[in-house]
Amino acid sequence: MQKEGNFGYREAISMFVIAMTIKSFFSSPAAASKLVGTALWYMILISGLTAAFLFMFQYLLLKRFPNLSIMEIADNVLGKFFGSVLSLLCCVFFIFTASIDMREFVEVMKIFVLPESPPSFIMIIFSLSVVALSFMGLETIARFSKFIVYVLGAGFLAVILLSVSNFKIYRIFPILGYGLDRTIFTGIVRSSFFGTITVIGVFAASLHGPREIKRIGFSSILISGIVTSVSALSFVLTFPYTTAQELLSPMYAMASMVDLGGFLQRVEPIFLFLWNFGTFVEVTVLFYAAVMIYCHVFRISDKKPVILPMAILMYGMSLIPRSLNEVVNLWVHLLRQWGWIPYFLPSIFLLIVSKFRKKKGDINNA
Amino acid sequence: MRKKIAIFLMLILILLFFTGCYDSKEIDDYAYITLMGIDKGVSDRIRLTLQVPEFSKASGEGGGSDGGQNEEEKIDKENFTVDATSVLSAIANVNANIPKMLNFMHLKAIVVSEDMAKSGELGEIVAPLVRYRQIRRNVNVIICKGKAQEFVKSARPYLGGLVTETLEDLIERSRYTGFYTDVSIGHLSDEIKSTYSQLLAIYGAINKGENFVEDGPLYEGGYKIPSDFYAGDVPRKGGQEIELLGTAVFDGDRMVGTLTGFEAQMLHLVWGDLRRSVFTIPDPEEPEQVIPLEIKEFEKPIIKVDTKTDKPHIEVKLSMEGDITAIPSRINYEHYMKKRTIEDVFEKYLEEGIQRTFKKGQSLKVDVFQFGTQAVRNFWTIPEWEEYNWLEKITQATLSVEVDFTVRRTGKLTESQPIRSTEGEE
Questions:
Q1: In this complex, which of A176, A243, A257 lies closest to B193 when CB atoms are compared?
Q2: pTM
Q3: Nearest to B172 among A178, A242, A262 (CB)
Q4: How many angstroms separate the CA of residue A326 from the nearest CA in chain B?
Q5: In this prediction, does ipTM exceed 0.90?
Q6: How far is CA B70 from the centre of its chain?
Q7: Fewer beta carbons under 10 A from the terminal one: N or C of chain B?
Q8: Chain B within 8 Å of A276 (Cβ-Cβ)?
Q9: What is the pLDDT confidence band of residue B94, given thresholds at 50, 70 and 90?
């Protein structure tokens, strides 16, 4: 049993909420707007509900095997070899997602803030920060998240409230967007937006039992869903659906349009702060989950020597896409469309196999 | 030993962070462009005029307030004009000739010549500027009569201060006067692609006082609707040379016409965003006299759009209140029975003004009042809305306007006594 650190549900919820909601500050809203138009804000709620439903299977699995992580459950259910294969696939997926998210962040930073800095320069500094936090361990990541979530929440609220003067109610119409059927289908498919919640399975041993996992999981999805929906709603009210699809970072564009009384303007630095710290937490969470899986598969008790090589691997993977367009139009698009498979299906698969093979965890562990 | 290596590595990292990042630049490294003018070019596709005011070391001064330098020389030094294929290539050309890097981060307005706007190239040359990171979405866009080059050169700070301040205040004034619409490059990019509405931009011109007739026979004509001019036509003398009055209307990215200052006021009244404004109406009982009213909105306008038929029908209901600020005829309109006359006249005045503006918009095939933003509520899905094609349907729409106006106060006087002279009472 891999237990790391001692932190409560608030820390865990902060960590997962930041990791899930930060994606709405990049290209995802514009891409989703292209599919559903003005229905974006409630499509996100449909995605959240779908994610909650799919997460339920992971919760049932973790409840069946109390206080075990998903890797240990995989070993138990599928045997050491196939369990390791499944775990390593998840590891590769998490590190790949972290690298794409980092690359997207770096490219967007280059466009809006640091046009002359080489991407590798920004990525190295970012990766070193991820390494530094990872060295401190899961407890530090969680506690840092709890510390920063209040600041990020306040900044987020500030950007939304300051943008109210740019809202026009008519932009929410036609209310059904491109059609309710399309909205529901897209919402279900894009439940991968909330897929980061499945990392809870990797950290399960450090949490205080299935009941707490349930609380963390569903609360995180609920809070993330509401926050992301609010940001999507503000985005829909600010930009007509025809131009919303064009924007790289609608939230940044919203922040840059704030101009109250000719006095309160140029408030993008608030938004940059949210962006930087939020992405930092998200990438660290995914990266650390990959490190934990890797160390479990290869029975490495001390994670520290693995962190730097994995970071180099993440950095290398993030250099693979040739341009921002490839990142956004290919990789991020693939992750959003098909990410629900690697996020949610392993848990469903393990649950089915465990029921079929009548495998159960030790109730004394509960 | 390991401790020493760790300390050494930390010191190197600290040094790395202290060097700053690639993008750090001093404020003095840049020359900040405050105004940009775009005309059709002669030796290349576009003619770009950039105003880069000299900011003096004294706080709050800049852009024309340095009295020691010849004004003409100063204007020439601060305004660059270059013909180029694109805005960025023009910037590169200018950058080759000045010691500082040009920077758009404090750009206040983009001035586009009417010729350029009418040629339909707005969407090709101006709208794409929203992609450039230095240009903010809330940079204003002004369509100017004549050459943008002349307009930019004429834009000087008024009564000291900065030219950016002057422009910002001037554009902000529209909230009180309603003589033009405040539009930014972000709006421009949205509106030329919108299915709800079309672009309405600020219309500007240079007014050097040519319309002001210094001497001649005194005016004996009848009532004239105030501000029923286009920019540049106001008979005035002195003050700012640049004049913002009226609205340029677009069908897509092609300018198809203009609205006068009065017509632009009608837009703001229907939109419900005119804070307080002055209207002058003819005196109902002595038509050679006028009655100025200061009005404001009492309730938000109610707009209903019926899209069930092929020809949409629009109903507008305005609820206004106001004060009588003068009664030159000294007729006792202050009396509660008599004030109804003023109210009726003003209601009719506004109804006719709104109808006239609407019909003008229809003749230009433009939804000037942006009724599309209301009509869209009748549709459930985007395909249905787009198939309806509101921008085409508006040309066949009918409009009925109802105005309810109430005079609340009559200024500091509650009645008007007659003027007495040797000839008796007037």
A1: A243
A2: 0.90
A3: A262
A4: 18
A5: no
A6: 32
A7: N
A8: no
A9: confident
